[in-house]
Amino acid sequence: MSTQTQTWTFKGSEGDFELKDPHLTSYLYFPLVNEAGMMSSITPSLHGDIKSGHNTFLSEPVSAESLHNSRAARNFWVHNQEFGPWSCTGNSAVQHASRLDKETEGGDKVTLEAGLLWHKVIRNNTRIGLRAETVSFVPAGADRVELMKVTLTNTGNRKLTLTPTAAVPLYARSADDLRDHRHVTSLLHRIYTSAGGIEVQPSLSFDERGHRVNKTAYSVLGSEGDGGKPAGFFPIAERFIGEGGNYDWPEAIVRNDVPHSGPGEALEGFEAVGAIRFAEAVLQPGESKSYIVAMAITDDRMDEDRLWKTYMSEASFDHLLGACKAYWREKADAVQFHSANKEFDLWMKWVTLQPILRRLCGNSFMPHHDYGRGGRGWRDLWQDCLALMIMEPEEVRQLLSDNFAGVRIDGSNATIIGRLPGEFVADRNNIPRVWMDHGAWPFLTVLLYLNQSGDLNFLLQEQTYFRDAFVNRCRERDDSWTPESGNLLRTTNGEIYRGTILEHMLLQHLTPFYLVGEHNHMRLEGADWNDGLDMAADRGESVAFTAFYAGNLRDLASVLRKLERRTGTAAAKLAEEMLVLLDSLGEPADYDSVSAKHELLNRYFERIAGGVSGRKTAISLVSLAEDLERKASWIENHIRTSEWVTSESGSSWFNGYYNNDGERVEGDHPEGVRMTLTGQVFPIMSGVAAEEQIPSVIQAVDRHLLDEEIGYRLNSRFGGIQQNLGRAFGFAFGHKENGAMFSHMTVMYANALYKRGFVKEGKAVLDSIYSLCADFPKSRIYPGIPEYINEQGRGMYHYLTGSASWLLLTELMEVYGVKGDLGDLLLQPKLSGEQFDEAGKAAVVTQFAGRRLRVVYINEERKEYGDRQAGSCLLNGKPARVEPAAGGCLLSRALIKSLPEEGVHELCLKLI
Ligand code: G1P
Known about the structure:
Elements: E1 9-10, E2 17-20, E3 30-33, E4 39-42, E5 50-53, E6 56-57, E7 75-80, E8 84-87, H1 93-99, E9 108-115, E10 118-125, E11 130-137, E12 144-154, E13 160-170, H2 182-186, E14 190-193, E15 197-200, E16 204-207, E17 210-213, E18 217-224, E19 232-233, H3 237-241, H4 251-254, E20 266-268, E21 272-277, E22 281-283, E23 288-298, H5 304-311, H6 314-332, E24 336-338, H7 342-361, H8 378-391, H9 396-403, E25 416-417, E26 424-425, H10 440-453, E27 462-464, E28 470-471, E29 476-477, E30 498-500, H11 501-514, E31 541-542, H12 543-567, E32 571-575, H13 594-608, E33 616-620, H14 621-642, E34 644-646, E35 652-654, E36 657-658, H15 678-686, H16 694-704, E37 706-707, E38 711-712, E39 741-742, H17 743-755, H18 759-774, H19 776-779, E40 786-789, E41 795-798, H20 802-815, E42 818-821, E43 824-827, E44 841-848, E45 851-858, E46 870-875, E47 878-879, E48 883-885, E49 888-891, H21 893-897, E50 904-911
Helix pairs in contact: 7-8, 7-20, 8-9, 8-10, 8-20, 10-12, 12-14, 12-15, 15-17, 17-18, 17-20
This protein binds 1-O-phosphono-alpha-D-glucopyranose (G1P).
Pfam family, one: GH94_b-supersand
GO molecular function, one term: carbohydrate binding
InterPro entries: 6-hairpin_glycosidase_sf (IPR008928), 6hp_glycosidase-like_sf (IPR012341), Gal_mutarotase_sf_dom (IPR011013), GH65_N (IPR037018), GH94_catalytic (IPR033432), GH94_Enzymes (IPR052047), Glyco_hydrolase_94_b-supersand (IPR010383)
C-alpha cells in the first residue's frame, strides 16, 4: 500500500495546482468538458472514459471501481531497442508491477499539473533518460473533441531512438452495450483508416431506443507536432493486443511490429483501437519532439481535412489550449474572493466552476456517477439555477419560467426532465412517486431571482401545467389520459390552461400544507431531500421540510405585500377551483384537525378531477398574504412546541421525522441517540426555530453529529436497516445518506446559521468542510467540494453536487453579504475578523444589475461581526448614497444601473 502524504499545492492566481505522485492515489479523476457536449474524465494515468452522452461513448464506460480498466485509457507508447516498451502514461505491465514498489517505481517520477480545465502529467524515467509530458484538454469550441499532446524529451546524455505509437481503444457505442450484446455490437463496427487516423462508424446502434441506422462516428487522429502524418495503423484490437496479450502489454508494441494497416482501408466486425504508429524518432540529448492525438465524436463520418487543419499541429494545440484556459477562467472569474486565506480563495475557484460542470454533465458521466443518462432531477434543476444566477445570469428568467411547466395542477411535478428547456416527459416506467420537498425549492430559487432582479412582475407571468396519468399527488391514476393527449393541462373545453408563476408556487405549497400525517406534519410521501428516506410513504412525515414550507409561506406572503405596494397590483387572478385551499378567505379551517385538512384537500382534488374550468377569480394580494401568514404561523407554533425533543443526556433539538409506523424518529433510543442534521437545518433556516432554541440545537449537533474525523454527519448511527424509514440505512454507516458528511446538508446548515446571525458557529461549519476537502492525504480529491466525505475521510462523487451551488451562494451572500433585496443591493458582511488580510481588507468581485462590481470591505482593526458597524461607503472613490442596513448598507438599483456597463466598479465599505 502507498503511504504517500503529498498534497496538492496551488501555483499562481488562477487555481492551477500541482501534485507529486498523483498515480499513487486511486479513484482520482478530473473533468474535461465543453459546451458542445464532450465529457471526459481523466486520471493521472490517463484512464477514464470519453463520451458525449449515454449512447455515444468513444471509450468504454467506467465507474470508479473500473477506473484502472485499460480499455478506457489513452496510451502513448515508445519502443526502444535497448529498453523495450515504455508507456508515457504509465500504463505498461512493467510500470504497473513496480508502481507500489517505492524503490523502483519503474524508474518513473510522476507529477501532475492541472488548471481550469486542462490536465498535464509529467513522467520522468531516469534509467531511459526520457521525460514525457502529456497535456489533455477539451477545446472550448463547437466540436466534440478531446486533444492530447505528448512531448518527449531526451533527458539523458545519449542519443535515443524511439518508435512512438498512440493507442486509444475505441468502444464507439452506447453504454447499454457494455453488458448487453458487447460482442454482437462489435459486429456492427465499420472501421476506416485514413491518412491521419482511424474512424469507427457502427452500422446500427443497439440500445434502449431500439435498433437504428447509426450515423455517429468515433475517431482517433494522430499527427507529429509539425502536422506530419502517421506512419501506419493497428486498427483491430485483437491483432494489436495479440493472442494472450492485453492493452498493458500489447504484442504489436512489445514486438515493435510494423503497422498492420496503411491509410484508406475499410475493415469490419471487430473491436477497434485507435492505435497510430509514428515514424521512428531520433532524439539527441536535450532534444524534444511532440505529437498530437485527437479523439472526436462526430454526427456522421468526420470531415478529416477540417479536423486536421483545426487541431492537428502543435501550434493549433497551444493556441486552443490558451483559448480553453481563457474560456474557463472567465467562467470562474464571475465570482472572485479575496480574503486572508489565499488557499481557500483559490479552492473556491474550483467550487465556482462546479455548478457549470453539473449543468453540462447532470448527475452522470463522472466515474462515481455511474448511473443515469445525464439528466438532472427536479430538485437539482432548481438548485443549479441558484448558482447560475450568479455565474450566468442572462438566461435565468426564461429558464425559471420554463421549469414551471413541469408543475402539475395538484402541486406535484413531472420527474423526468426532457432535453429542451421546459420539456417534461411522462414517466414511461409508470412509477408514481412524489418527493415531498419538490414544491419548496422553486420558490427559494424564485425568491433569489426576485431579490437579485427586483422583477416582481415575474410572479404574474403565465405558464402551462404538466399533465400525465397521475393525479392527486400520484395517489391515483386517471386512465382517461393517454400519451396522445399530450403533456399539457387543458381546460374542460380542451384549451391549453395557463396560470401565473404565482399560482404554480401557491399550489406547490398549499397542497402539501393539507396533506399531513397523523402528527399534523406534511407527509413524507415518496421521500424528501434525502432520496434515501423512501420507505415511509404511508405514515412517514417530514417535520424538516414542513418547516421549510412554513418559511416559504411567510416569505411568499411578504413578497406579495411588496408586489402590491411597489407595483400597485391589487389582486392576482387564480384558478377558481383553488379558492378552497385559501380557506381564510371564506370559512377558516381548523388547522389542528388532520381530518379537516384532508377533507379540504379532497374537495380541491374533486374539483380538478378531469381538468380545470379555465375560469379565474381575482384575489386581493393582501388577503392572500394573510392566508399564507396564518398557515405559516400555525406550522411554526406546531413545530416549536411539539417537535422539541430532549434527550436523557440533556441535549435538546428538533425531531425531523416520523417513520412508517408513525413513530418519532429522533431522540433517545436503546441503540443510542438518533438525530438528523436535516431536522435541524430547515427549522433554523426557515425561521421556525425560535432564536433561543438555536444554541441548544448547535450544542446537540456538536455532541451527536460532529465527528472529529469526518465532520458534521448527516445523521447519528441508528443501527439496523430501518425498513420503516428508508433505504439509506441499508448503506454502511458513515457513507452517503447514512451518516456521511453530506456536503449539501452541511453547507445548508452553515447557511442557516449565518442567516440567523450565528456567524462564529456558521464559520466553524464551513471551515470544517474546507479542511476535510483540502486534506488530500485523507480526502484524495483535487480542489473542490465532493458530494460527501465517507467514513474513511475520502471525498466521494467529486464535482457533480448541489453543494457547490450552495457553498458559492453562502460565501457570496452570507459570508461576504453581497445580495439583492428586491432589486437593490445589500452589503451585509458577516466575515469574521481573521478573514480580513493584513491590511484589514476583504473583497469579492461579482455581478449585480448587469454591472461588474468589486466590493471591498475595510476593517482595519479586524473587528468581529457584531462588534463593528458600517462606516462610509465609496463608489469608484466617491461617497455613495446609501441607506443604513443592519451591519451594512443598502444601495439603490438605480445607482448601480447608472454605472457604465463596461469595466469593474469598486464599492468600498468601511467597517468601524
Ligand atoms: C444528491 C442529489 C440531491 C439529493 C441528495 C440527497 O445530492 O443530487 O438531489 O437531494 O443527493 O439524497 P448532491 O449530489 O447534489 O450533493
